[in-house]
């Protein structure tokens, strides 16, 4: 099993960059809400560790959801899925690596610009972390 060819099955890659942006907004909001929970539970002492807490919550959120569902909740809501180049779902280690590389690229503006450019210009709409790890984000079901 392999990924659909973008030349012969473009519907699997249609609108993927825009849908990834929407998914990112949804997942960012969810991560913020989940980060607030331990801050409130620690009577706001956790605010002193906000950057580390946000990174840890984001890594856990993405790793758990990608390893369980092959997508984050934002990706599920926008009908996207993450797959290996052989078409299989990512395991927990790949989900963690994907989340870690994504977080690193997000923190370095030049890498983020390169990643977005790759998503917009490549036939399979793969970002920098997708290229490095051999993954791709595609539409869950091709429209009729």
From TrEMBL:
Top-level lineage group? Bacteria
> Keyword Magnesium: yes or no?
no
Does Kinase appear among the keywords? no
> In which compartments does the protein localize?
Cell membrane
User: Topology in the membrane?
Assistant: Multi-pass membrane protein
For this protein, the record's InterPro entries field holds:
Pra-immunoreactive (IPR051791), RDD (IPR010432)
GO CC terms for this protein?
plasma membrane
Q: What keywords tag this UniProt record? A: Cell membrane, Membrane, Transmembrane, Transmembrane helix
- Please give the name of this protein: Uncharacterized membrane protein YckC, RDD family
């Amino acid at each position: 099993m392999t990924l659909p060819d973008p030349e012969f099955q473009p519907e699997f890659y249609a609108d993927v960059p825009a849908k990834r942006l929407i998914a990112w907004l949804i997942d960012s909001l969810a991560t913020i809400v989940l980060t607030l929970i331990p801050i409130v539970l620690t009577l706001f002492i956790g605010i002193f560790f906000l950057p580390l807490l946000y990174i840890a919550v984001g890594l856990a959120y993405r790793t758990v959801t990608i390893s369980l569902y092959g997508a984050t909740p934002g990706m599920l809501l926008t009908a996207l899925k993450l797959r290996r180049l052989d078409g299989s779902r990512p395991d927990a280690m790949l989900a963690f690596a994907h989340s870690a590389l994504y977080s690193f690229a997000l923190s370095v503006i030049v890498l983020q610009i390169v990643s977005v450019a790759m998503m917009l210009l490549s036939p399979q709409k793969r970002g920098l972390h997708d290229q490095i790890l051999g993954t791709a984000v595609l539409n869950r079901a091709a429209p009729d």
